[in-house]
Amino acid sequence: MQVFSTFNHSIYLEMAISTLEKRGITRESIYAIPLDNRIEERRLFDSNHTSDGTSLIDIGAALATAFSVVGTSIGFELAWGPIWWGLIFGAFGFALGFAIRLFTEKVIKSEKGC
């Protein structure tokens, strides 16, 4: 009997193959080939129908949280108060994190050829 299935290549697929080998299926009986022969370039923004698994807002959300906490703490001694300064610092942190992630996706990963 032959069973065919398609999966995206990930560490979970490697773990599943090694589990099959531990259960007695020989390595020669398992045939895995990558199905990702992507010709087009990766898109910067995902659509409703496709996603490549990268996020542009992960660093921005972390920096927005950290900067808003610092901005709120500093805002107790400034004129506009802690709420406004927390929002201002949070927006700045998000923009900084988004710019860092955008730079890594466009410049660094394009140089590596990913």
Structure description:
This protein has helices at residues 11-22, 58-75, 82-112. The chain is mainly α and 114 residues long. The protein has 2 domains: 1-37, no CATH class; 40-112, no CATH class. Helix 2 runs antiparallel to helix 3 (82-112). The chain is elongated, with a radius of gyration of 23 Å.
User: How helical, in percent, are the residues?
Assistant: 40-55%
Shape: elongated
Count every helix, treating DSSP H or I runs of 4 or more residues as helices.
3
The number of strands is 0
- The quaternary state of the protein chains shown equals single chain
How many domain regions?
Answer: 2
Order of helix and strand elements from N to C terminus: HHH
Mean pLDDT: 81
Question: What structural class do helix, strand and pairing data support?
Answer: mainly alpha
The biggest sheet, with number of strands, parallel, antiparallel or mixed sense and barrel status, is: none
Tell me the distance between the termini.
Answer: 37 Å
Rounded to an integer, what's the Rg over CA atoms? Answer: 23 Å
pLDDT under 50 segments (min length 5)?
A: none
Taken as a percent bin, the fraction of beta residues is under 5%
